[in-house]
């Protein structure tokens, strides 16, 4: 964890980050605008028209995902704290991520204990776990299995997400979580930064194990709420 906290300490200041994000968002918006303007051309073939529209939509998707990743990071404060039933929350998240998994030939398997409660903000928890699961799914371009586990470990809840994907080497593991580190063509390199930031505000810990060609396992340890301790 110290290593992860170090990474957060080393983050650029928020204003520097905001400046680079606005740049990261402006670029795809400029692309989208340019291709939408091309559509005004009267003598376009249907093929060109579709091509320009696809480019514009891709660029807008890129801008959107950059903003989504960033806004969660920029506001990591824990307002609206509620008691969350993790079994229920994980079933909700599994349903949410299901179509994306199916689209990528990934089978989801769940092993969830019941009666595990934490205090936290449901949307932040969702964003954090969805970012981890999305990465797991994206690490399996030929399909595979995503295992989602929930169990109680002492006074903590442990959520583990394991994929059978491409895995990471030492250097990748080290760099993961730094802003803009991505190995994907249209990645933002912000997803795991948001994950670490949310887990930190929830006073949790993250452990990552990975092996090239075998897969990756993300474990999030979160302190239980009083209700499940009694
Ligand atoms: P992005 O998904 O946009 O690339 P992230 O911050 O979510 O940004 O992830 C950063 C990088 O960490 C990814 O590009 C990938 O190289 C690596 N990574 C994260 N999770 C996994 C995983 N489950 N398997 C393999 N690589 C991963
Ligand atoms: Mg990601």
Name the bound molecules. Answer: adenosine-5'-diphosphate, magnesium ion
- In which order are the strands of the major sheet placed? 2-4-5-7-6
Share of β-strand residues: 15-25%
Report on the biggest sheet: 5 strands, mixed
Q: What structural class should be given to the helix and strand makeup? A: alpha+beta
How do the SSEs run, as a string of H and E? HHHEHEEHEEHHEEH
Low-pLDDT sequence parts: none
- State the separation between the terminal residues, measured CA to CA: 28 Å
Instruction: Please tally the helical runs, counting DSSP H or I stretches of 4 or more residues.
Output: 8
Shape: elongated
Protein name: histidine kinase
EC number: 2.7.13.3
Organism: Domibacillus aminovorans
Subcellular location: Cell membrane
């Amino acid at each position: 964890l110290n290593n992860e906290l170090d990474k957060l300490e080393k983050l650029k200041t928020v204003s520097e980050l905001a400046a680079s994000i606005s740049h990261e968002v402006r670029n795809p918006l400029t692309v989208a605008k340019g291709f939408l303007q091309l559509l005004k051309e009267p003598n376009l073939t249907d093929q060109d028209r579709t091509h320009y529209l696809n480019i514009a939509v891709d660029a807008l998707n890129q801008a959107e995902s950059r903003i989504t990743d960033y806004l969660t990071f920029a506001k990591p404060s824990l307002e609206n704290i509620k008691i969350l039933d993790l079994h229920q929350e994980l079933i909700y998240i599994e349903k949410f991520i299901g179509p994306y998994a199916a689209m990528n030939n990934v089978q989801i398997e769940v092993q969830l204990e019941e009666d595990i409660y934490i205090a936290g903000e449901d949307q932040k928890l969702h964003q954090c776990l969805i970012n981890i699961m999305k990465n797991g799914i994206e690490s399996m371009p030929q399909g595979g299995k995503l295992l989602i586990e929930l169990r109680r470990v002492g006074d903590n809840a442990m959520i583990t997400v394991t994929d059978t994907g491409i895995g990471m080497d030492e250097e990748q593991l080290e760099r993961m979580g730094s802003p803009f580190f991505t190995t994907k063509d249209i990645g933002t390199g912000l997803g795991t930064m948001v994950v670490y930031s949310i887990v930190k505000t929830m006073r949790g810990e993250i452990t990552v194990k990975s092996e090239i060609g075998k897969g990756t396992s993300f474990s999030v340890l979160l302190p239980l709420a009083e209700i499940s301790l009694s």
